[in-house]
């Protein structure tokens, strides 16, 4: 900074004000300082800055199974929101959920001096583990259920399941079958709850759900089972990848969608509008999840007093395409 100040013919404090975008700097002075920075190739020393300000301007993110669309999109939304707020992101991705792994991830990020941590905790075991741990830094859980004394940001999975089921019932289908996600996932639980609630409100019986693991293969196996059953005319599938497998199985078995069976997915992955037929689905707003997560975390970081735990719920939206039709 001293070199920049000499080159621009200003004081060290003026360089600091320019770097911190202080408004009380004349435009010609700001231009001169920026030209000197560019000429000298100056880069701020973030480690030194952290020592002075006691803030690293870095946030930690812990996620699980980022090979899946939901967790990967959530992490991307968090990263974009953090960058827009002027923060760097350090990500730890865990392959399995256990107390030791979560503890190690939190300790690793705390040792890096992060200002706060967002944990993407879609599994019940992860949320319970997180609730039992005290990381010593501000923390927010995404899809964390009731994560104890931790603030939570989540999509309203129950509402999503309800929207999907009510749409199919509104088309005149007697009931709606369901291909659910893994039992330990909070998102799967919420979607099942919304499906059951919509059927109960309509006075319809709920068939036994078929189990899946989020993969197209598990959807394919469920689709083969459904194709062999009598009376199946509407299916709500808990994510779009499994819905793809269901559609493939129906096609192989000669079951026409939507002429014979209507299908609704969940997530609205980029490929879903190019399925055959294009998939009616429930969209999750991952940008809003990321934005809200960072806003809640920054309120903890910047607050003078410890804030009360927050729970922000992002509504899903319905996307109508060609995979559903009147019964």
UniProtKB/TrEMBL annotation:
Nucleotide-binding: is it a keyword of this entry? no
Q: Which domain of life, per UniProt?
A: Bacteria
Q: Does the keyword Transmembrane helix apply?
A: no
InterPro entries attached here? HTH_LacI, LacI/GalR-like_sensor, Lambda_DNA-bd_dom_sf, Peripla_BP_I
Q: Where is the HTH lacI-type domain?
A: 1-53
Q: Name one GO molecular function term.
A: transcription cis-regulatory region binding
Keyword list, A-Z:
DNA-binding, Transcription, Transcription regulation
Q: What name does the UniProt record give this protein?
A: LacI family DNA-binding transcriptional regulator
Q: What is the lineage of its organism?
A: Bacteria, Bacillati, Actinomycetota, Actinomycetes, Streptosporangiales
């Amino acid at each position: 900074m001293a070199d920049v100040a000499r080159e621009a013919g200003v004081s060290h404090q003026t360089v600091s004000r320019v770097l911190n975008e202080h408004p009380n700097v004349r435009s010609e002075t700001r231009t001169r300082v920026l030209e000197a920075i560019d000429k000298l190739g100056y880069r701020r020393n973030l480690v030194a800055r952290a020592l002075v300000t006691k803030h690293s301007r870095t946030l930690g993110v812990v996620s699980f199974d980022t090979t899946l669309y939901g967790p990967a999109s959530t992490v991307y939304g968090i990263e974009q929101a953090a960058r827009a707020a002027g923060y760097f992101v350090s990500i730890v991705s865990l392959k399995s959920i256990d107390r030791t792994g979560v503890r190690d991830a939190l300790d690793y990020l705390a040792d890096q001096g992060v200002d706060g941590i967002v944990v993407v905790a879609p599994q019940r075991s992860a949320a319970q583990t997180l609730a039992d741990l005290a990381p010593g830094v501000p923390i927010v859980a995404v899809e964390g259920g009731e994560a104890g004394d931790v603030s939570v940001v989540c999509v309203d999975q129950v509402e999503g399941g309800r929207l999907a089921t009510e749409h199919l019932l509104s088309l005149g289908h007697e009931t709606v079958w369901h291909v659910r996600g893994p039992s330990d996932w909070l998102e799967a639980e919420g979607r099942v709850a919304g499906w059951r609630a919509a059927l109960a409100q309509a006075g319809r019986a709920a068939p036994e759900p078929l189990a899946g693991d989020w993969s197209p293969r598990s959807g394919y196996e469920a689709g083969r089972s459904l194709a062999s059953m009598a009376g199946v005319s509407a299916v709500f599938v808990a994510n779009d990848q499994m819905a793809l497998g269901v559609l493939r199985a129906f096609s192989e078995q000669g079951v026409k969608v939507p002429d014979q069976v209507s299908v609704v997915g969940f997530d609205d992955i980029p490929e879903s509008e190019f399925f055959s037929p294009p998939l009616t689905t429930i969209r999750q707003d991952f940008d809003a999840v990321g934005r809200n997560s960072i806003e809640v975390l920054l309120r903890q970081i910047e607050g003078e007093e410890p804030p009360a735990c927050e729970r922000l719920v992002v509504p899903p939206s319905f996307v109508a395409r060609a995979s559903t039709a009147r019964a």
